[in-house]
């Protein structure tokens, strides 16, 4: 069952219960109050009639007449026959509870003892001949003869009024409940409409439409829920985008890695098979052996970098103090010889926190990338400078071909190469910057690239200084 239906049924049930209880209480109190008022009035009438009868009988005794049971019965009949037009319903009984007089006929169901023995009041209410009566009973002795007088007052109108109130209350309650049901129905639909929107949006997101959002402008809890939902949807979309990006990078990694292994392995197998199957002249043999050697060395370097890349984790590495200016000069001198390129160093003195071996790998990769960019002056510049925020920046600058703007964000992905043919010809594998990025992440830093096509590239990163140093 939908929530709006539950809301409507629950609210109507509460209203019905409250109305019923309140109406019942009001009608019951009105009825009891009316009975009480009529009871007081009828009690006064009963007492008056009792004393009227008693005084007349006493007067007879005082006149010296003989009082017998037959005389009393005869007198009562004559008295009430004379007063009949002014009397309410009345029944008179003798001491044996035999009916002496009645102005409403013979009553078989009336029990005088029951009326006399009432503990909770001085009257009883009975239904006689489909009418409701309030009965009062009194008795007195006349020369040892007991006389019982029962006054019956018709209170049917009070019961009819009660029934009328119940009937009108029932009709009014039905009208109230109907109006309430319609009002609550409309209100519940309005109230749950935003929830329906959230439900539909969540289903669409579950189906893969991660751009789905809800537009709810209310400032209540539902509005806050909508904002939280949209924030959650943004996070989900972002995470899905990241996952898709990671999957693409993984596929690119596998494709690139497979190609990087396949190309040199094919060349090695081809040249080795040629040398194995036929005798070649000295120049061809030397060329084949040089190619096998260079491709084998390339595979060795590739495997070494991949092992480093795969072994790096988010676990903390042990950072030690490094005299960074000496470190830069030492690495530059080694790379200047191996890379066959001029390296110009301008490094300010400082001590930084880092891992020597890992940072050397980073600097080598950046110098190698700068050389592959084919700088016009065949020179790479390395600048080390102290920054005001207790950081030390190392920049590797070349005046080479540069990197197109659309490729800058992706060059740190594994095996991503802008010009694959040129990269392979120059011995590139496409994992140098990816490896550098992971190493620097462990140092709380990252690779930053500024580049313009045919003008040059500046790749820099920042390390935490151990202590302030003077230039």
Characterise this structure:
It is a single chain. The strands form 2 sheets. Strands 6, 7, 8, 9, 10, 11 and 12 form a 7-stranded mixed sheet that branches. The relative contact order is 0.07. The longest helix has 60 residues. The chain contains 10 helices and 12 strands. It has 3 domains: 163 residues, Beta-Lactamase (2-Layer Sandwich), CATH 3.30.450; 102 residues, Signal transduction histidine kinase, dimerisation/phosphotransfer (DHp) domain (Helix Hairpins); 152 residues, Histidine kinase-like ATPase, C-terminal domain (Heat Shock Protein 90, 2-Layer Sandwich), CATH 3.30.565. It starts with a helix and ends with a strand. The protein is an alpha+beta fold. 57% of the residues lie in helices and 18% in strands. Helix 4 packs parallel to helix 5.
Radius of gyration: 56 Å
Helix content range: 55-70%
The ordered string of helix (H) and strand (E) elements is HHEEHEEEHHHEHEEHEEHHEE
E-strand count? 12
Biggest sheet character: 7 strands, mixed
Strand content: 15-25%
Taken together, the total number of domains comes to: 3
Kindly report the average pLDDT value: 79
Q: What is the name of the CATH class of the largest domain?
A: Alpha Beta
Helix-strand category: alpha+beta
CATH architecture label name of the largest domain: 2-Layer Sandwich
Note poorly predicted spans. Answer: 419-429
CA distance, first residue to last residue: 77 Å
Q: How many DSSP helices? A: 10
Quaternary status: single chain
**Topology-level CATH name of the largest domain:** Beta-Lactamase
